[in-house]
């Protein structure tokens, strides 16, 4: 009988900071319930969840600290400092068969992929953003979609894409040159792309298509059980639509608020971010309500009773969990026709509007708010089947290559 399969999950943070972290936490829970031995490797951080392997974590780095702190963070970018020693100890003691990487740039380092490969592990890397194609992650320049670095990495320097800083952009440029496509493809067995859109961009930029697998994100079983108990048809004092997410430029929140000002319907905004204070001052009104950060339970309550959820992004969204969760609650989605969003919103699940088109967005909101034939039960049932743990695991276990292994 073969020894129990050991799987190491790696992400730069280990708390529900964003979609990447939530995906890792959900995957850890799934793998443990399936009976696999699972460990976590991350960066030490005060908000991390309790973890048995935290003693192995890389030390915390920050690019906003003093000179010594910045030097330490710069070392981390290029895979030097304590990262090699701490990850090697993790490998030596846990001895994983599979290492599944998620977001590792900057606060960890791709050097750990090389170490895992040399240790003899199967290496899988789920891509949550476009860092391997765009040194500044987002494929945006001055608020517009940009693919300049797909063919010329020097553009990140010329345009000072990283925070408008020449120094930060130079570091991003150097990082992209050092951790180049040739190296990464030698060390990674499979890149998991949560959307076909991302896989197409990876292939267009020269990544080996045989190393790319498209596996959509999933919603955890516990949340599905909770959603099934929700009575979303309970009447509200007044119908409303909502936005849940980060209040930042790439999310298109300004576009939504501009459209909302011209409409008579109630809009609830859940989330915070760098634009929070500015937007509250400018747009808060009797029909636009800023709720700030909400708990998971509060978000479920808000979204499940909304007439629609709006995803107005102006960047290449990959595979947003907000769309998946909204559909699983039976709430239709009005989404920007960009990135991986159109793959999630099928006929009957909501509608799409042209990227950046305020008038078209306003028309879509009006149509959804006045619609009387939306089958929320059907939306929920379709979504819960499409985004289930079972569907995700059937695809992932092939990537892991464990169909014939005994655990």
UniProtKB/TrEMBL annotation:
Which ranges of the sequence are coiled-coil? none
Domain named Glycosyl transferase family is located at 231-384
Any Pfam family hit = Glycos_transf_1
Superkingdom of source:
Bacteria
Query: Can you give the residue ranges of the Glycosyltransferase subfamily 4-like N-terminal domain?
Result: 24-222
Record Gene3D superfamilies: Glycogen Phosphorylase B
Instruction: Name one molecular function that GO assigns to this entry.
Output: glycosyltransferase activity
Question: Could you tell me the keywords of this UniProt record?
Answer: Transferase
- The protein's name is Glycosyltransferase family 1
Q: What is the lineage of its organism?
A: Bacteria, Pseudomonadati, Bacteroidota, Bacteroidia, Bacteroidales
């Amino acid at each position: 009988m073969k020894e129990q399969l050991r799987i190491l999950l790696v992400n730069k943070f280990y708390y529900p900071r964003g979609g990447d972290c939530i995906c890792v936490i959900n995957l850890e829970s799934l793998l443990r319930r399936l009976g696999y031995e699972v460990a976590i490797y991350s960066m030490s951080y005060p908000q991390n969840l309790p973890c048995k392997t935290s003693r192995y974590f890389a030390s915390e780095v920050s690019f906003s600290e003093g000179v010594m702190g910045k030097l330490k963070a710069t070392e981390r970018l290029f895979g030097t400092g304590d990262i090699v020693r701490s990850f090697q100890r993790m490998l030596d003691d846990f001895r994983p068969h599979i290492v599944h990487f998620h977001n590792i740039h900057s606060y960890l380092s791709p050097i750990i992929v090389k170490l895992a490969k040399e240790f003899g592990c199967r290496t899988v890397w789920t891509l949550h953003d476009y860092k391997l194609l765009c040194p500044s992650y987002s494929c945006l320049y001055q608020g517009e979609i940009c693919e300049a670095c797909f063919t010329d990495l020097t553009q990140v320097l010329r345009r000072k894409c990283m925070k408008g800083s020449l120094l930060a952009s130079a570091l991003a440029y150097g990082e992209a040159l050092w951790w180049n496509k040739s190296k990464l493809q030698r060390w990674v067995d499979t890149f998991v792309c949560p959307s076909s859109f991302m896989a197409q961009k990876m292939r267009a930029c020269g990544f080996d298509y045989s190393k790319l697998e498209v596996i959509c994100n999933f919603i955890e079983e516990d949340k599905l059980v909770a959603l099934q108990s929700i009575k979303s048809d309970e009447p509200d004092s007044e119908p409303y639509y909502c936005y849940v997410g980060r209040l930042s430029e790439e999310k298109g929140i300004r576009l939504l608020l501009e459209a909302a000002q011209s409409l008579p319907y109630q809009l609830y905004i859940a989330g915070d971010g760098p634009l929070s204070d500015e937007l509250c001052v400018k747009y808060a009104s009797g029909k636009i309500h800023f709720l700030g950060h909400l708990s998971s339970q509060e978000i479920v309550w808000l979204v499940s009773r909304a007439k629609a959820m709006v995803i107005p992004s102006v960047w290449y969204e990959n595979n947003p969990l907000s769309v998946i969760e909204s559909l699983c609650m039976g709430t239709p989605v009005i989404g920007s026709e960009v990135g991986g969003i159109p793959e999630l919103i099928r006929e009957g699940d909501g509608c799409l509007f042209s990227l950046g088109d305020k008038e078209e967005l306003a028309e879509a909101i009006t149509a959804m708010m006045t619609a009387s034939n939306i089958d929320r039960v059907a939306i929920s049932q379709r979504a819960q089947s499409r985004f289930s743990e079972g569907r995700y695991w059937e695809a992932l276990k092939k990537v892991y290559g464990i169909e014939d292994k005994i655990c």
